[in-house]
Amino acid sequence: MRASLIQIAVNQDESVHARRQRVASLVREQRGADLVVLPELWPVGAFAYESFAAEAEPLEGPTFEAMAKAAAEARVWLHAGSIVEREGEALYNTSLVFSPSGELVRTYRKIHRFGFDEGEAVLMAAGDELVTVPVPDLPLGVATCYDLRFPELFRGLVDAGALAFVVPAGWPERRREHWTLLARARAVENQAYVLACGTAGTHAGVPQAGHSIVVDPWGEVLAEAGVDEEILTVDLDPAKVDLTRKQFPVLRDRVLGPQPPTRA
User: Fold this and answer.
1) Signal peptide location in the record (predicted)?
2) Which pLDDT tens digits describe the chain residue by residue (264 residues)?
């Protein structure tokens, strides 16, 4: 499977409409890949809190329309990053995942909202469902940015059948070491691929970490971006997940979590 992570530069001088069209063009250029991944909240910027309400869109809004068309034209599975979704009076940080026909097959509302007592944590409502995507040969578990700090979410995705995790993010530069460390940790402890796609540029005065990263089930870094806009393209072997879990069957020794039934 060939995966392309598009590390988008978010420049507040570029309009949301212009960036949406530019990103759709970048997606179309990935024809030949199987999976394309975009970052978190790239239309508006993950830290542009003051713009969330104004730029919020319904689920099937302009970003949905542009990304559905781009996925179909490129014939790729597309994790289109996330948008500020408006449903009634509530805002959500919602990821959109499209099939190669342009069908919206999954949405994921971010469960762990960042900001403690401000920002996203108070402006957005939380999701409450784990989401997997039935990509052939490599079922995906979906998480977003701050979710990366909560290992129990990823273990739940493993129990739901995920062989790889897709993590779009708007991760700040000042905590970049945590970003790469946690991406590798989630891969090692779950023996799964991690495809973590961040942003470049500056969101509302917050420099972004960049450094999108792809990690294999043994924890080896297959590719890592720099700090500027960049596209990582990596070939993944789905069989490597099963091989790693057979060669080093650590998941079999779990004490907590789902267990096989005991014999009477």
Assistant:
1) none
2) 999 999 999 998 899 999 999 999 999 999 999 999 999 999 999 999 999 999 999 999 999 999 999 999 999 999 999 999 999 999 999 999 999 999 999 999 999 999 999 999 999 999 999 999 999 999 999 999 999 999 999 999 999 999 999 999 999 999 999 999 999 999 999 999 999 999 999 989 999 999 999 999 999 999 999 999 999 999 999 999 999 999 999 999 998 877 666 665
Active site residues: 40, 110, 145
Q: Which domain does 200 fall in, by range? A: 2-248
Strand partners, 6: 231
Helix, strand, coil fractions of the chain, as percent rounded to 5: 30, 30, 40
* 99 Cβ contact partners less than 8 Å away, ≥ 6 residues apart: 71, 77, 105
Q: What is the CA radius of gyration of the chain?
A: 18
Number of domains in the chain: 1
Considering the domain boundaries, does residue 148 fall inside one? yes
- The answer as to whether 253 is a domain residue is no
Calpha distance 223→254 (Å, rounded): 30
Residue 233 sits in a domain whose CATH number is 3.60.110.10
In a domain, 256, yes or no: no
Distance of CA 228 to the CA centre of its chain: 18
